[in-house]
Amino acid sequence: MTVVDPQTLPDAPKLDADFSNYFVINNLPKCKEEKIAKLATLIESTLKKKALKIELNDIEIPINEETQETDGVAFIKMKDEESARLGVSIFDGFKLTSKNIFAACLFSEFEKLMQTADEF
């Protein structure tokens, strides 16, 4: 049986590899699925207070299948790179609680963020 990469097929959809309009927030409180909406609303309302328009469905907070909790990270889609950079400036260092000081970066810089020491 030969395995074929679906992206090499002639009718494969073109995927947008440009994630410049996304940013990532790390060190969010870990929570169960029922509290994700509250966390997303906090992100949305914080951005709207700074005149950045965003829809709740542009905020992705994944669930870890093993723990059935979030991993403390959110991926936010903005209208353009400039808005994403503004989002980073709003959330990087944002203090929710003494244990939850957010770290934010553009999606393209996410690998650098993941190398930050846990003591941060």
Walkthrough of the structure:
It is a single chain. Helix content is 25%, strand content 17%. With 120 residues, it is of the alpha+beta class. It has three helices and six strands; from the N terminus they run E-H-E-E-E-E-H-E-H.
Architecture blueprint of SSEs:
Layout: E1 22-26, H1 36-49, E2 59-60, E3 63-64, E4 69-70, E5 73-77, H2 81-91, E6 103-106, H3 110-114
Antiparallel strand pairs: 1-5, 1-6, 2-5, 3-4
Structure characteristics:
alpha+beta, Alpha-Beta Plaits, 120 residues, four-stranded antiparallel beta sheet
Q: If you consult CATH, what is the topology?
A: Alpha-Beta Plaits
Shape: globular
- Main sheet properties: 4 strands, antiparallel
Quickly give the CATH architecture: 2-Layer Sandwich
CATH class: Alpha Beta
Using only C-alpha atoms, the radius of gyration works out to 16 Å
**Structural class of the secondary elements?**
alpha+beta
Mean pLDDT across every amino acid position: 84
List low-pLDDT spans.
none
Helix percentage range: 25-40%
What's the CATH H-level homologous superfamily?
A: RRM (RNA recognition motif) domain
- Discrete helix count: 3
Rounded to the nearest angstrom, the distance between the terminal CA atoms is 48 Å
Number of strands: 6
Going across the major beta sheet, what is the strand order? Answer: 2-5-1-6
Report the order of strands and helices. Answer: EHEEEEHEH
Strand content: 15-25%
Kindly give the count of domains. Answer: 1
